[in-house]
Amino acid sequence: MSVLRRLYLYSALQNFANSLYSPFVSFVAASTGVPPLLLGVVSSAGTVFNNISAFLASFRRWRPLKLILFANAASAVALVLMAAFAEVHAAYTAMYAVVTASLGISGYGWSLIMEQYSRERRGISLAEFSFYSTLGGLVATLITGFLIRDDPLAIRLALYAAAALTAANTAQLYKLGIDYSEGPRAPRGGVGRRLLKFYAENFVFMVTWSFAWPLFPLAQVYVFHMTGLQVAIVQIITVASNLAFQRAMGRFVDRHMRLSLFLGRATFMIWPLVYGVATNVYQIYAAYLFYGFGGSISNIAYFAYVVDNAEDRRRAIGYFNLVNALGAAAGAELSSAVLAYMGNYNEELIRRMLVGTAFARLGSSLLFLL
């Protein structure tokens, strides 16, 4: 098997493992009564701890494969502990934070490998890797959806399976022995005015984006009374839509970068708006058929913009991760603080907050046109 095919395999299997649990972690937390502030941590952990750990990893010239090996091993151990203490709210939250932090380090190592293998055709190459990665999650999401249909805590089995698969997949990648050839490191200095402006725009958007994250699982549980299987169906529609749009959006990004940056963010107003005004779960299913338009751009354009406008790509990626983390932490915890202050999860409050954040997302996305 060629090196490129082995990389596709790793991407698909890793996303399969992650998709066994990640679409359901916040839903399970909301279903089991995790308090608002901890729910904010859970719902934003995939961005906050993931990106902060990636930022810290960027300060040293690690070999990407070594980063992936040690980080994935830590993730597998944390997944086992998360399953063992799934009913203890603080432990469930803490172990998920460790999982996402470990995956952030692993993802940083993977992003360096992706940067090397996408240099000739950035948009199209990243779209192809994202396609195979996305493909790996379809079956996994459906499996866990059936598994937790009647009992959210049945996610324990998915967590154990994800730990085992992560360990096995990491072993097959490490045997490949590929390395990252960066060349001489750029002198230390500023990241450039263009990237500073981009980071500021992205921070503002991340606050509005993450404000809705604790609200989605609450809406699923307390407004629409969804089961684990229905949550899985939403995720599968999302994945299928991404697959349908992925390649075309890769070409679009290569030709229209600035417009892509705007559209990839602006279309994200749709999802909180739909949850805020929908009267049944089938309307949510219908709306998510079009998720792939903006979602596919988000999978490609922002990483491509950073690496194409940076002299020191490691530092640029690291700072991008930090900006995302700070914005996500601010938005999610602000939303959770409002929920904690109000003291209950009534339907009207959840819907109003969702509609408000939808228009805030649209407003902040206009910054990418300036």
UniProtKB/TrEMBL annotation:
GO terms for molecular function: transmembrane transporter activity. Coiled coil: none annotated. This is Major facilitator superfamily MFS_1. The chain crosses the membrane at residues 7-30, 36-55, 67-86, 92-114, 126-148, 154-174, 195-216, 222-245, 257-278, 284-307, 319-343. Pfam families: MFS_1 (PF07690). Signal peptide: none annotated. Keywords: Membrane, Transmembrane, Transmembrane helix. It comes from the Archaea. InterPro entries: MFS, MFS_trans_sf, Sugar_transport-like.
